[in-house]
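Predict the 3D structure for this chain.
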Amino acid sequence: MTILQGPQNLSRPAIDSPLSWVVSGSFVSYPLAMDLMERAVESAVAGRSAGRIWLLEHPPVYTAGRSARPEELLEARFPVYETGRGGRYTYHGPGQRVVYVVADLRTLYGDVDIRRYVRDLENWIIRALTRFGILGERREGRVGIWVGGADGRDYKIASIGVRVRRGVAYHGFAINVDPDLSHFSGIIPCGMADHGVASLSSLLGRKVPMAEMDRALRFSVPEMFRLIP
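Done. Predicted structure below.
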């Protein structure tokens, strides 16, 4: 796997985002998370809140995005939920940091610039991985963040799925910190059968506590979120 030469020390301090940060210390069921996120979206659409950044873990589930194909669900080992986010099948479970972001794109950019928003999410993930000395990269024609393997294959370390309603973006991304990677075997992740899945722990050869990932995410949160009043 592609590892940078040791953890990278970035020069600036962490940014305090005006979005409300919520960190759930226990597992949150997928249906409950969707219900609470929908409420946060409605609040943001109505102008009652600036938005939210929510860090959590789900019990093991498979979720199907709008482009999911039935044949990509190989074995329903865990509950399967259809969701309105972009993308195809993915897995969520213990050891994976799920980050749901609710934010008004017009406040961020002056218009509903989805491409720019997704790129900013990608940059956020890449910066957070850099804190661990891991080189995360984009791949042309593929969604998410990837690392290169010594075997010449690409391995996905983070997935991204976004939906927009009335100018407010929601859903977000998931980073494989220390999940059971065998749980991905029930699906073709993101419809890409020729590529594997990696985690921070599998790359670094040690168990990575979730608190370390959370600190990296807070340190690396995009400066754009400071623009939200």
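Confidence is low (pLDDT under 50) at residues 1-17.
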